[in-house]
Write the structure tokens for this entry.
Amino acid sequence: MELRALIRRISIENPLWGAPRIHGELLKLGFEVAQSSVAKYMVKRRRPPSQGWRTFLHNHAPDIAAMDLFVVPTIGFDLLYAFIIVRLDRRDLAWINVTTNPTAEWVARQVTEAFPWDEAPGYMIRTAIGSTAPSLHADCVPWAFGTGLSHRPHPGRTALPNG
């Protein structure tokens, strides 16, 4: 009974210590106890609930847009580059355009035309533009910083990035 009380007391007095650390300290004091037993008798701390994905989107969606540049093959085996911007708050297309030769200036103009005046979002999620048109990546990133947009690159071939 006194070992359980000691485990509880140590875990309360040292909130940053986990079961492995308390187990080690108890071994130094001469108590033969398993780490799983220490974890079982430690005080369980309640954490404040964090916001869920739905709450996050409700709070931040008006400030987020996503852009992508992707390749569209034609029936004549030519390549067209489609550029698309989606606003997350309304879930609709903010801008779409197509070109045969994308440049950084062209992409910058598309974003500028998609968000005239003070309608620009606070955050822009972009895919790995460099994988579609490698020459654009080095030119587009400095441009995005120059506009005041906070951009988050999305890793190209992942379904759910944690970034």
Remarks:
- The CA atoms of residues 104 and 139 lie 6 Å apart.
- The chain has seven helices and five strands.
- The chain has a mean pLDDT of 79.
